[in-house]
């Protein structure tokens, strides 16, 4: 079974408060982003599940990888046999694009199909929530207004088809812990749920990512990338999540090859 696990964008990200459990209350819009990791799931006669990764290097112990943890969750409840997981990692690491969360959630969905577990989207989302705050989004994989710690969703009628998207990923890795250490939670002045319904050309005046202030101070190159994208005619530009990827939305396809000096440039195709 071949799966194409897509990334996501944060359009706006408001950090409202820190909770007693260490998590933060957030407001954000999650939107599917057509940059893909490729996953092959196969039932195997091996004694245990294996994970083979090509492409982007993923730090840490393979046994702690979210894909393995996703398998272990379903194995515990349904006794599914070992599988081999081959992952071609193309979504950049430390980008704020949710690649690891996407991989885990697509493994859950793939195992559900492979072994005919007949789990509902609601049940799969419950398992995904145990893996990480972003993971449940990738179960239904539709635009949502996200609140809480990023696991409470309200469906959102948002369609960016017809616009042209560009993502620039510099050679900078920002950990989630580093990003939260640099942000000051505050009650938002603007309702993101209302602002996202404004014409897209007005987003830059009302929709912001609260992580940018602290991150841009530590990594001024990211601020320069965002400003350059606006100079090139972007309708809206922002850092996604806790960074370091910077994306921009354009009216028409724009050649930004000269911006390769900043890092890798992605021109996502239609989802």
Task: Name some characteristics of this structure.
single chain; 271 residues; alpha+beta; 4-stranded antiparallel beta sheet
Molecular structure report:
By secondary structure, the chain is of the alpha+beta class. The protein has nine helices and ten strands. The chain has helices at 66-78, 99-114, 121-131, 137-140, 176-181, 192-195, 203-206, 211-218, 220-231; strands spanning 2-18, 24-43, 50-55, 83-89, 144-147, 152-155, 164-169, 236-239, 246-250, 264-266. Strands 1, 2, 3, 4, 5 and 6 form a six-stranded mixed beta sheet that branches. A four-stranded antiparallel beta sheet has the order 8-9-7-10, covered by helices on one side. Helix 1 runs parallel beside helix 2 (99-114), helix 2 (99-114) crosses helix 3 and helix 8 crosses helix 9 (220-231). The two termini are 20 Å apart.
Low-confidence blocks of residues: none
Order of helices and strands: EEEHEHHHEEEHHHHHEEE
Helix content: 25-40%
Largest sheet: 6 strands, mixed
- Roughly how many Å is the radius of gyration? 19 Å
Helical element count? Answer: 9
Please give the alpha-carbon distance between the first and last residues. Answer: 20 Å
Mean pLDDT figure:
94
As a percent range, the share of strand residues is 25-35%
What sort of overall outline do the alpha carbons produce when their principal axes are compared?
Answer: globular
The number of distinct β-strands equals: 10
Structural class: alpha+beta
């Amino acid at each position: 079974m071949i799966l194409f696990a897509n990334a996501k964008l944060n359009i706006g990200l408001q950090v409202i408060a820190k909770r007693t459990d260490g998590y933060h209350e957030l407001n954000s819009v999650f939107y599917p982003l057509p940059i893909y990791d490729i996953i092959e799931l196969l039932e195997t006669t091996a004694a245990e599940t294996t994970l083979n990764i090509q492409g982007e290097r993923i730090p840490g112990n393979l046994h702690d990888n979210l894909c393995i943890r996703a398998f272990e969750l379903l194995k515990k409840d349904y006794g599914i046999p070992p599988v081999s997981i081959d992952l071609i990692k193309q979504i950049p690491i430390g980008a704020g694009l949710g690649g690891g969360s996407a991989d885990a959630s697509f493994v859950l969905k793939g195992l559900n199909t492979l072994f005919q577990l007949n789990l509902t989207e609601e049940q799969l989302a419950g398992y995904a929530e145990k893996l990480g705050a972003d993971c449940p989004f990738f179960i239904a994989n539709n635009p949502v207004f996200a609140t809480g710690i990023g696991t409470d969703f309200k469906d959102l009628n948002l369609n960016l088809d017809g616009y042209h998207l560009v993502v620039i990923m510099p050679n900078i890795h920002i950990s989630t812990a580093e990003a939260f250490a640099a942000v000051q939670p505050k009650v938002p002045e603007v309702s993101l749920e209302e602002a996202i319904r404004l014409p897209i050309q007005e987003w830059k005046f009302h929709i912001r990512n609260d992580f940018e202030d602290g991150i841009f101070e530590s990594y001024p190159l990211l601020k320069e990338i965002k400003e350059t994208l606006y100079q090139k005619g972007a309708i809206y530009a922002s850092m996604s999540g806790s960074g370091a990827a910077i994306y921009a939305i354009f009216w028409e396809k724009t050649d930004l090859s000269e911006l390769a000096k900043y890092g890798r440039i992605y021109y996502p195709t239609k989802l």
